[in-house]
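User: Fold both of these, please.

Assistant: Here is the first one.
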Amino acid sequence: MILGIDTASIAGNKAIDWTAAKASGLSFAILRATWGDAVDTLFVKEWDHIREAGLVRGGYLFLRYPKGGKKAPEPEAQARALIQTIGAPQPGDLPPTLDLEFPGDGRAETGMTVGACLDWALRARGVLKNAYGVEPILYTSRRVWRDDLGDTRNDDLVECPLWLARYPFAKGKVVRAGAAFDDMADPPVPPPWGDADNWWIHQYQGDAVGCPGFPTGNVDMNRFNPLYEGHGARVKWVQRRLDWSELNCDGDFDAVTKTAVKNFQVEHGLVPDGIVGPKTFAYLAWQVV
């Protein structure tokens, strides 16, 4: 199991030891870079330390919506704040993530329609794509898509790789092993993305305490969905970023695809194992299609 964490300043983490976190088996870490257009202080403090410890790193924008009659910054301003906070990405960094959710009582608190909420997200996504040249990762969940967004399809978002939340474990002591962990069900995928396997990261436990390297506060636990076999939309996503013609993007992870992944890994100084893990995914996600 390939594990990682995400966290933010509100989680109360102090004296983080990223070297210990990596030594414990964590492979990636994603920090909240901005909340609306406000910079997260933990990101500023820890961003460089994650890379120094050898973890794959990423930053996310918590997209704020109007709530309870209170205004929120325009989505373009929120996206620009993320870009300014993260700065120029380094080789091996994850693309920025757009966090699309509606805490509290859901979309109703925004006073916006489904269409208006999706447009808000698309406007932020557009600024990010224009700045970076590639799609952001999209953090959301099947529940959000069903209950708040009415299972609405939008073709402009389906190229965004998915980071999905679904909690089989309650908050509390961190879960990293055990029978229930090994048999964990995959997160359900929102209908616009189709395939049940079309996700890359699963946030499986929120507010976990006792994660190595985090002596105080809490983190959200995540697992990465490596790709090395099978058929479907994720394979096509990889094939497109290997600069294949659309005709050859058949969605089969066959011997030809495996060899192409290995060649890509060699070109970027990665271990040529033919598996799309966090590091290879991070490099592939920056390939312009």
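And the second sequence with its predicted structure:
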Amino acid sequence: MGAAKPPWLRVRLSLSENFTFVRKLVLDLGLHTVCEQANCPNAVECWNARTATFLILGDRCSRNCNFCAVTPGPRGLPDPDEPEKISRAVRLMEVSFVVITSVTRDDLEDGGAEHFVRTLASIRCRNPQPLVEVLAPDFNGSEKAIKMLVQERPDVLGHNVETVPRLYPQVRPGADYQRSLALFNHAHEVDPSIPLKSGLMLGLGESSDEVMGVMKDLIEAGCRLLTLGQYLQPSRAHLAVDRFVTPDEFDEWREIALGLGFAGVASGPLVRSSYRARDLYLEAREQSASQDGFGMRPEEALS
């Protein structure tokens, strides 16, 4: 699959009892994780730490992006019992922070927004303490769907722009860059206290000026958290890697992003949007302690 990976992208695999526990739990409950579906290079590390990013609305996507390993072609309606299964898994894993994402479901009238809301509500009903980050699709630009999800008050609302606008036709032809920015703008209008987060892949042929432009657009749209990671080709059928970005370059991008106004930035070759999400959130919240309301639940803001 293209050029050999540089040494900084080699991952050592060492399975622990926690890994076995998470794997069995996911299988027993019939759940999906982005860790598996997207071939995440950090899956073993995260499962060893007893964390996982749950993938809802099925395991097949209505879009066919040229960078993504998730199988296209959804089949049937979402599992109505999935929200309860997710909440049970969260309780059994005893996590303090959980990330919920999904495939894109353009075939559903609301894009799956109600299912997101039910999942978030179910988690909090059974597990009132864990913070919940939601990594959402664009819901085809539906402001109603976005509002529905924002009003359920996830602790973090994420949506990945993935790449620079020029590369959208090649990388994610079913998406629209301006539509993604509009999602952030609308979410920020509905509830400006919810931290907004996005992610960008590097190594697809983007220029430094284009990356800078995307970061400025995200800041303008109200985004406060950012992840930057290396694009890795899932298979020969997917887009080839244009170049491998060095760890030093990722460090430089982190400093630039912080200088532009992001409250928290995770930047590195193996960083993915939900990688060590709790650490990024807490770091950003601590750094933004003087900015009223960042990441606060209503009961905290009133205390």
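The mean pLDDT is 91.
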